[in-house]
Amino acid sequence: MADEPFRYHFKHLAGRRQQTFLAIAEEIIPADDSGPGGGTIATAALADWAIARLDPSLQKLLMVFLTVWEYLGLLFGGKPFTRLSSEARQRQMRWFERSPIPALRTGFFGLRAMALMGFYCREDVWPSIGYEGPLLFDRPFPDPEIRALQKGKVGVAP
Questions:
Q1: What is the pLDDT of residues 125-150, one digit of tens each?
Q2: If you average pLDDT over residues 88-110, what whole number do you get?
Q3: Cβ distance 116 to 27 under 8 Å?
Q4: Is 63 helix (H, G, I), strand (E, B) or coil?
Q5: SS3 state at 25
Q6: Is residue 71 part of a domain?
Q7: What is the pTM of this model?
Q8: Residue 140 domain flag
């Protein structure tokens, strides 16, 4: 059925890491009256799809970084990142963005890029930013999974 969501099996952004990613994405792209924010399963699914295509060593580093990110929230508000207030989350994110440690800055910008890519690739977001879609819309995709994810109706596969 056309209205049924595409059932996506998360390979990397699952469990606590998924919750951390969703919280980060929602802070980077907050929901407003014009559309959804970045903290959605559809955004996470597109990011997960892209992460699965990275070099395995980068995948591993990114997953470790998400875990570190979650628990460094304890230093910014006494709780894991996903349980912090938006103000404390923003403070932690600014710290990562400006960190004197290059690996932490790189990790921040990598996660930011994944959140932005996952959000702006979604067709259901395009109208809220005035984008009418690609000029050659009906070109076949080399991977049909990305086309299904791009439509924005995503459910979690068991």
A1: 888 888 888 776 677 677 778 878 88
A2: 95
A3: no
A4: helix
A5: helix
A6: yes
A7: 0.90
A8: no
The residues, ordered by sequence, that sit 6+ positions from 132 with a Cβ below 8 Å of its Cβ are 126
Inside any domain, residue 1: no
Q: Indicate the burial class of 132 (C-beta count within 10 angstroms; 0-12, 13-18, 19 or more).
A: exposed
User: Which of 79, 54, 48, 12 shows the shortest CA–CA distance to 154?
Assistant: 48
Q: How far apart are CA 103 and CA 1, in angstroms?
A: 45
Report the number of distinct structural domains present in the chain: 1
Tracing tokens 């959000």 back to the chain, one arrives at: 119
Evaluate whether residue 10 is within a structural domain.
Answer: yes
Structural tokens at position 56: 């395995």
Give residue-wise pLDDT tens across range 28-80: 999 988 878 999 999 999 999 999 999 999 999 999 999 999 999 999 999 99
Q: Are 95 and 124 in contact (CB under 8 A)?
A: no
Q: Could you list the residue range(s) of the whole structural domain that residue 67 is in? A: 6-131
